[in-house]
Amino acid sequence: MITINPLSKIICLSIILAFGFLLIVLSCAVYNNWRPLSVIGIFLVAPIPNAVFGKLDNNDFMNESTSSVPDFGKFLTGFLVLSGLALPLMLYHSLLITRNAMLMSMGGGFLVYLTIITFGTFFHEEDDEF
Known about the structure:
Radius of gyration: 18 Å
Structural class: mainly alpha
Number of helices: 5
Membrane topology: Multi-pass membrane protein
Number of domains: 1
Transmembrane segments: 6-30, 37-56, 76-96, 103-123
Helix content: 55-70%
Keywords: Membrane, Transmembrane, Transmembrane helix
Strand content: under 5%
Subcellular location: Membrane
Shape: flat
Organism: Ascoidea rubescens DSM 1968
């Protein structure tokens, strides 16, 4: 298995994140309409419920009761991601932005969210039982 230097991971992720922000800002600046900029906020807030509610789960293998707290965090994260993808579609459908601005905003938002999730998985450390 190939190991990649953590600094290289951070540099690659920052380049992808910057490209995602660039797409969103260009979707606003090129068409002189700043409504798609709200996608940035939605995609930056989207991973927070999953991270917070995932840490609140205190189940171990000896406890047979199941907790719905992490599932609620996943639901909120999914809701926010879907809202971030649907917002440019809604703005385009109501003729507030152009088709190209919608595509650029959705692509940039997807890259921003994908970068945040990839960063979390690259640097997530497993807790040892022993």
